[in-house]
């Protein structure tokens, strides 16, 4: 196992190098000028030119890339043009809200998706199954921002139960923290729940048709024990993959949802940095998101081994 | 047993939801528990170093922290602020500004002429107005309480430049300026009614009441007179999404929200617990031509566009409500002392026949006219669509290119690849501040007419206001003759706030001194 993990971490290097290069080229090919954003559109051309030079934007693109890459391998992702702080600090500041939101959304998604998915699979073809799958399809199809805006209208504006937007850190109290995250987490969680529920149903249907399930039924085991202990555990690997991928997506920043609910997370950081042409922040954040994706996938692979004893990565098992 | 666990978990989430829901403390209309003001603004400023940026959003926050030597009253006349008064010598070449005594910076240090001198010198190094009007001036501090400005020639634009709030001549401690070098200041220390506390990027900028602030004795007027922090804490919260800003003020999450879309007006106006304010003449829409490209380098082509446009249709499409716009030919707003209406016969002509004739005389052969547009600002997008349609009616082959604001800004600084764009021109309260007239400011569009530059210099050098205003009349007539841009119409702004907010007034932008909550 340790060897496998080391190998996976090493394989991260070329992935990140390619991501960094593509990321850098695309951003610098996009027209736009951070100097105008900083000084304003009424600034004189002389002042704009001076600031561009100060920011190193007049250097050849390969020189800019070399400087940035050299810093990145030493853990220095540069300094934000707009926020005037190290990119690592900016990412760190924005990571907390995103992680909290992603965790809450994922918890909501799992709590709804697993029981509903199992219920649909065990009642295959019934009206419950069909209804749940229609709901699932709707959940996938409805954009989370639209759902979010409607939640704001209903729960914040009409009922005045929850705040319309904003973020309070965990230090302000757990309940206060959750209060601000509940609506965005629900609007994100519902979409993720639909995905996970559909995967749970499909995976459960496959496992429930296996011979060992029939054997268990023949032995007279309780239905609940068969479903939850024997079937669900074996059906869980593809479900776990979907959970992992949805979580990785959320960690990458629920861009539109964070904008709608004004949550100062990674998604908002990326959007604002793109609008401000804050090149170094975009580069650093995308690199961070790519790293998170790879590590979350690695974590899922490790969890496979825990859930399914047939999956082993160490040399002894081979 | 396992099913029970799931059930318990779902119940736990539901309980949490209900608990948190019930604990929401949305304010009831008519009262506010904390003596604080939360203002939702449309974006975050790039910096609060006002010497360095022309962005309006920086001014909106920064002028609560920083004061200037002089400022503008409600009639846009220069009045003293940190200066006790100002005296102009009979020859108009020397301006003496004795400073108010016992003014303290937010760091506790007493303000002296040394700080003022350092601030003014830094400001005139970076500000377009400062460079244009005080670039050649000799500024000295003969004693610790006096500033003297000696000019090579008389100028009535100097005091206005020092009072103008955009990229304002903010007074900061000398050591803060020295520490900044060529970069931005690291500490936001001023003498204003509020002092800087914290800036959480993408969350809020927190200011608090400055207990050591000494207000002027005169009654408040415009930006001048008595300023007082009547709330303990002032938060500026950047909320980019319009719908979220509206919902936030409806629920009481924010006390004030600005830049509200006009189509929300009727709904907000009738909402309990809310007040709406129509801010008069916040900006005007302006169609800018690229005079470096052959088509619009030809004055006939520009005149053709000006002749064709129906401003009422354009402004109606932008605002959807006549309460939010006025049609006016003036390059400064009607309430300004500088206001003149010369050239008004060339405004809003709606004369398609004349437009076609002028277009033919310009030699236009139907080549594509690249019109840069952004969707980031609804008013720019909507006005561009109507302008496009009206120009197509006279035979102009308009090609819209839609970009985000940053890209559009990047493209428009390039002399090639575009022919026109719509932008807003705000806050020109004095003729020499009008960016698109003076060729030496090299603003996008690159209008270059020595006759116009000469008129602007005459305005600057004129000691008599009536004479200067008369020259401005000539300059405005020349503008409508030459149409380097086409002014489309004045636009108002919509601000909404909770009804417990008292004393809110809009003057050149939202100000939150003299504003209280009850």
TrEMBL record, chain A:
Keywords: Cell membrane, Membrane, Transmembrane, Transmembrane helix, Transport. This is Glutathione transport system permease protein GsiC. Residues 95-304 form the ABC transmembrane type-1 domain. The gene is gsiC_1. It comes from Sporomusa termitida. It comes from the Bacteria. InterPro entries: BPD_transp_1_N (IPR045621), MetI-like (IPR000515), MetI-like_sf (IPR035906). It is a multi-pass membrane protein. GO terms for cellular component: plasma membrane. Pfam families: BPD_transp_1, BPD_transp_1_N. The chain crosses the membrane at residues 9-29, 99-119, 131-157, 177-197, 236-261, 281-307.
Automatic annotation (TrEMBL), chain B:
Residues 1-25 form the signal peptide. Residues 77-427 form the Solute-binding protein family domain. GO terms for cellular component: ATP-binding cassette (ABC) transporter complex; periplasmic space. InterPro entries: Peptide/Ni-bd, SBP_5, SBP_5_dom. Gene3D superfamilies: Dipeptide-binding Protein, Domain 1, Dipeptide-binding Protein, Domain 3, Periplasmic binding protein-like II. Keywords: Signal. GO terms for biological process: peptide transport. CDD domains: PBP2_NikA_DppA_OppA_like_16. GO terms for molecular function: peptide transmembrane transporter activity. Pfam families: SBP_bac_5. This is Oligopeptide-binding protein AppA. The gene is appA_1.
């Amino acid at each position: 196992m340790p060897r496998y993990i080391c190998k996976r971490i090493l394989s991260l290097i070329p992935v990140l190098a390619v991501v960094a290069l593509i990321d850098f080229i695309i951003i610098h090919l996009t027209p736009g000028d951070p100097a105008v954003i900083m000084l304003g559109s009424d600034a004189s051309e002389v002042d704009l030119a001076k600031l561009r030079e100060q920011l190193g934007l007049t250097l050849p693109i390969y020189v800019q890339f070399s400087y940035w890459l050299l810093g990145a391998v030493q853990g220095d992702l540069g300094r934000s043009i707009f926020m005037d702080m190290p990119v690592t600090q900016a990412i760190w500041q924005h990571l907390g809200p995103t992680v909290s939101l992603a965790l809450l959304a994922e918890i909501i998604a799992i709590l709804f998706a697993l029981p509903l998915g199992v219920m649909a699979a065990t009642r295959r073809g019934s009206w419950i199954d069909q209804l749940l799958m229609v709901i699932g399809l709707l959940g996938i199809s409805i954009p989370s921002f639209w759902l979010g805006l409607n939640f704001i209208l209903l729960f914040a504006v009409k009922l005045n139960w929850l705040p319309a937007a904003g973020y309070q850190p965990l230090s302000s109290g757990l309940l206060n923290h959750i209060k601000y995250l509940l609506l965005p987490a629900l609007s994100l969680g519902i979409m993720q729940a639909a995905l996970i529920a559909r995967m749970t149903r499909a995976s459960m249907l496959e496992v429930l048709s296996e011979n060992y399930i029939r054997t268990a039924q023949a032995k007279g085991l309780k239905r609940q024990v068969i479903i939850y202990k024997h079937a669900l555990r074996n059906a869980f690997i593809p479900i776990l993959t979907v959970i992992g991928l949805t979580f990785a997506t959320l960690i990458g920043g629920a861009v539109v949802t964070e904008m709608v609910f004004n949550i100062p997370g990674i998604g908002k950081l990326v959007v604002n940095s793109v609008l401000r042409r804050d090149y170094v922040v975009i580069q650093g954040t995308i690199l961070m998101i790519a790293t998170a994706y790879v590590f979350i996938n690695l974590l899922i692979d490790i969890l496979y081994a825990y859930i399914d004893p047939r999956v082993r990565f160490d040399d002894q098992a081979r | 047993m396992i099913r029970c666990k799931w059930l318990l978990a779902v119940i736990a989430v539901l309980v949490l939801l209900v608990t948190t829901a019930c604990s929401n403390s949305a304010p009831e209309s008519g009262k506010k528990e904390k003596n604080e003001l939360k203002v939702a603004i449309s974006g975050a400023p790039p910096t609060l170093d006002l010497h360095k940026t022309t962005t309006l959003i920086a001014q909106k926050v920064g002028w609560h922290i920083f004061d200037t030597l002089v400022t503008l009253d409600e009639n846009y006349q220069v009045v003293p602020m940190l200066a006790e008064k100002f005296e102009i010598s009979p020859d108009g070449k020397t301006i003496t500004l004795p400073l108010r005594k016992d003014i303290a910076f937010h760091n506790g240090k007493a303000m002296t002429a040394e700080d003022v001198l350092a601030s003014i010198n830094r400001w005139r190094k970076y500000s377009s107005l400062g460079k244009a009007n005080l670039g050649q001036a000799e500024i000295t501090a003969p004693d610790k309480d006096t500033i003297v400005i000696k000019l090579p020639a008389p100028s009535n634009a100097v005091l206005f430049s020092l009072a103008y709030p955009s990229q304002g001549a903010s007074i900061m401690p000398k050591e803060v300026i020295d520490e900044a070098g060529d970069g931005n200041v690291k500490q936001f220390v001023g003498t204003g009614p509020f002092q800087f506390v914290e800036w959480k990027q993408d969350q809020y900028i927190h200011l608090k009441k400055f207990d050591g602030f000494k207000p002027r004795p005169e009654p408040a007027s415009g930006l001048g007179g008595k300023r007082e922090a009547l709330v303990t804490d002032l938060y500026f919260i950047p909320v980019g999404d319009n719908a979220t800003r509206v919902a936030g003020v409806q629920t009481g999450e924010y006390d004030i929200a600005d830049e509200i879309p006009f189509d929300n007006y009727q709904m907000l106006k009738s909402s309990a617990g809310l007040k709406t304010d129509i801010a008069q003449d916040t900006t005007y829409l302006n169609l800018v031509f690229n005079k470096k490209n052959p088509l619009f380098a030809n004055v006939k082509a520009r005149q053709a566009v000006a002749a064709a446009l129906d401003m009422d249709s354009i402004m109606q499409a932008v605002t959807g409500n006549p309460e939010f716009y006025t049609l006016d030919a003036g390059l400064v707003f009607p309430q300004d002392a500088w206001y003149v209406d010369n050239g008004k016969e060339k405004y809003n002509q709606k004369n398609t026949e004349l437009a076609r004739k002028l277009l033919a005389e310009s030699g236009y052969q139907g080549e594509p006219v690249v019109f840069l547009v952004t969707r980031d600002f609804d008013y720019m997008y909507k006005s561009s669509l109507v302008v496009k349609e009206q120009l197509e009616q006279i035979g102009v082959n308009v090609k819209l290119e839609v970009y985000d604001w940053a890209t559009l800004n990047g493209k428009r600084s390039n002399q090639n690849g575009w022919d026109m764009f719509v932008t807003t021109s705000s806050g020109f309260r004095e003729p020499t501040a009008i960016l698109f007239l003076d060729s030496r400011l090299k603003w996008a569009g690159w209008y270059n007419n020595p006759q116009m530059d000469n008129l602007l210099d005459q305005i600057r050098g004129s000691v008599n206001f009536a004479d200067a205003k008369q020259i401005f009349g000539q300059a405005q007539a020349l503008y409508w003759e030459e149409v380097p841009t086409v002014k489309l119409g004045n636009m108002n702004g919509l601000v909404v706030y909770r009804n417990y907010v008292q004393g809110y007034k809009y003057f050149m932008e939202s100000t939150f001194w003299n504003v209280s909550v009850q």
